[in-house]
Amino acid sequence: MNQVQSDLLVKVPTGIPGFDVFSEGGLPEGRTTLVSGTAGSGKTIFASQFLIAGIELGQNGVFVTFEESPRMLRKNMLGFGWNIQQWEEAKKWAFVDASPLDVNIPQISGEYDLDPLISRLRYAIEQVGAKRVAIDSLGTVFSYVPDETQVRSVLFKLAQVLRELEVTSVLTSELTIEYGQISRHGIEEFVADNVIIMRNALTEERRRRTIEILKFRGVPHQHGEFPRKI
């Protein structure tokens, strides 16, 4: 093996049919991937399936939820035949529950304090020996951050911690329009190593779901929008 080949990033399968083909192997290992899309585009399903595929390959996962409670996620994913509770009991899947109903968002002097979340994330990763992390979604985190400067600071810190923990991570973010700015604050895509866009466009009174890899830093992939279904 030559030096160029040995320096290439390894990709880990997502388990999502089709995606692992046009991504040419899955997501780059040890990197952060932003999955951005409008409501109903399937971001949470993508993040969940990514963790499930990891478990099947011996890579346990942690799901950080800022929107739905773990109880609701367990219930919703049963509809796809995914029994998350069985993986929790087997110490292969752990939740970090940061949903509004179950946790008081920590703030100090009007600034969002990320340290308690990082501590809980570290603990969960250690408990199950996680190699994959899903965070759903960044939009809720940023709703507690008072200005754009702090948004940038929080996002950089979170991305840095995930890299230091040597996990492959998926971070979801919600869009308000199908085409145009690819993240709500316009900075998320510059911090993440990779960017995936999921669309749920209305065309001639019919919904058309597509997925596109906008950026894979340092690794090859196929270009363009690809149709998909849930």
Question: What does this 3D model show about the protein?
Answer:
The structure is a single chain. With 230 residues, the protein is α/β, with parallel strands linked by helices. The chain has one domain (29-218): Rossmann fold (3-Layer(aba) Sandwich), CATH 3.40.50. The chain has nine helices and twelve strands. The strands form three sheets. An eight-stranded mixed β-sheet has the order 5-4-8-9-3-10-11-12, with helices on both faces. It has a two-stranded antiparallel ribbon with strand order 1-2. It has a two-stranded antiparallel sheet with strand order 6-7. A hairpin with an 8-residue loop joins strand 11 and strand 12 (225-227). It is globular and about 45 Å long. The N and C termini lie far apart (40 Å).
